[in-house]
Amino acid sequence: MSEQINRIEQLLIQFAQQTNERLDQIDKRFDQVDMRLDQMDKRFDQVDTRLDQIQIQLERMEDSQNDDVISILRHTHDKVSHLNQNAIV
């Protein structure tokens, strides 16, 4: 009976060790996945930052184009007004 108990105890210890080894391997895999996810987060942050910069540049370009169009319209209006005044005289 004592031998059976010792054998069961050894099997339980062996099973616990195998389980711990498997859990350690799973922990390593989770750490690797965590590291990859952190790297992806950093890349997404960089992409977000770049997109924000591009959006700011586009807004500046749009503002500049709007200013140019307004200037062209004013200039055209002044020319047309001048031509109308000359045509009346």
UniProtKB/TrEMBL annotation:
Residues 1-64 form a coiled coil. InterPro entries: T_SNARE_dom. Residues 1-47 form the T-SNARE coiled-coil homology domain. SUPFAM superfamilies: Tropomyosin. Gene3D superfamilies: 3.90.20.10. Keywords: Coiled coil. This is t-SNARE coiled-coil homology domain-containing protein. It comes from Paenibacillus algorifonticola.
